[in-house]
Amino acid sequence: MLDVSRELGRWFKEGREFAVATVVGVAGSAPRGLGAALAVDSGGTALGSVSGGCVEAAVYDLCQQALADGKSVVERFGHSDEDAFAVGLTCGGTIDILITPVTATTSARAVIEAAVNAMDRGEPTALARIIRGPADLLGASLLVRADGSYEGSYAGCRPGLEQAAAAHAHALLEAGRTGTVEVSENGSLCPGGLTLLVEAHVPPPRMIVFGAIDFAAALVRVGKFLGYHVTVCDARPAFATRARFPEADTVVVDWPHRYLEGTETDERTALCVLTHDPKFDIPLLEQALRMPVAYIGAMGSRRTHSDRTRRLREAGLGAEALARLRSPIGLDLGARTPEETALSIAAEIVATRHRATGVPLAHTSVSIHRAPAQPALGAA
Predict the structure, then answer these.
(1) Beta carbons of 108 and 139 less than 8 angstroms apart
(2) Which of 7-16, 29-38, 71-80, 165-174 has the highest mean pLDDT?
(3) Between the N and C ends of the chain, which has fewer C-beta atoms within 10 Å?
């Protein structure tokens, strides 16, 4: 639901009633992952997607049915070789979808609205919804906050179930992960146990671009498109200006290594060094390569890279640290323009994040829609 939370916030403010369909289970190759959502309001307006088009029409009808009867259901969609006209996924996978009405009479409305509002404020938030269990509990929701507190209820459950669910959700929130968890598998808190979908929302990852050059302006635009909070840093005040980088979230005038030392980063942060000047590059990279960030790339020719590596070795960095440096930065796309270069860098960042090869899919046999990498995340 996180991918449509902003639009749902507007629907809540307008007082609309709607149903939301959420992907709660994925097996094999599927176009969308856990948490992908399609919402349909009482007037028939739809937003979002659960399958990239394969089963959208059928899910749309299920949302309208949920609005009519007020009931939450879980439906499974798979591939049908027997009937070419059957509703199913063309990619051969299977998805389970929870359809939940969000109306004035549904108990989950207040909790989901509070979660959407918290996400809009950028607060770390987890929404824990029951996706397997007693029929009358399907879609029941808890909002879990960063301090472990929660609101909402699983009405009719035994004492301790909500606390156990909140604890599981809080653990996933701290890890920055969306996933499913089993609660009370032995039936002690709920006969038959429950399965929860926990959607964790954490602030966006950071991209810090060092070097206020034309390539940086293009990279800022691509970084924003990918959902990063983008900062541009350069020691030269004539170049590091808001006028030159209007789309950046922050423009900083400071020596790169000094700024990096004092700013917050985590295991999702991407550092792009475009300064192409040893007096900036070496102290910056010497520090960056000792930090637990997701990506470190540096612009320059192969000759520059060789000289840079030599200087970093002399500064005391070993082979393991140097192996983390992506230099020359980017994938081999034959890029010439700043925009093409930015695309090359962004492609390498995405491939690194998902531990992918970066080679054409036509030359591989790996699953196209494989499970996402789940690194442990630091505080954002």
Answers:
(1) yes
(2) 7-16
(3) C
- Tell me the Ramachandran region of residue 15: left when phi exceeds 0, alpha when psi lies from -120 to 50, beta otherwise: left
Count of residues making up the chain: 380
Compute, in degrees rounded to 10, the torsion defined by CA atoms 317, 320, 321, 327.
Answer: 110
What pLDDT does 83 receive?
40
pLDDT digits (tens, 9 = 90+) for 29-69: 666 788 999 999 999 999 999 877 678 899 999 999 999 99
Which among 223, 240, 230 is positioned nearest to 280, based on CA atoms?
A: 240
pLDDT at res. 45: 95
Rounded CA-CA distance 161/153 in Å is 10
CA distance 319 to 182: 42
pLDDT value for 223: 96
Query: 203 preceded by cis ω (within 30°)?
Result: no
Region of 187 (left: φ > 0; alpha: ψ -120 to 50; beta: rest) is left
User: If you compute the radius of gyration of the chain from its CA atoms, what whole number of angstroms results?
Assistant: 24
Spatial distance between the Cα atoms of 75 and 72, rounded to a whole number of angstroms: 10
Q: Are strands 18-27 and 37-41 parallel, antiparallel or unpaired?
A: antiparallel
pLDDT of 376 strictly over 50: no
Question: Which residue's entry shows tokens 């070789």?
Answer: 81
Look at residue 337 and tell me whether its pLDDT is greater than 70.
yes
Mean pLDDT lowest for which of 135-149, 184-198, 202-216, 288-302? 184-198
Contacts of residues 186-191 at CB distance under 8 Å and 24 or more positions apart, as own/partner, are 188/158, 189/157, 189/158, 189/160, 189/161, 189/164, 190/133, 190/134, 190/137, 190/157, 190/158, 190/161, 191/134
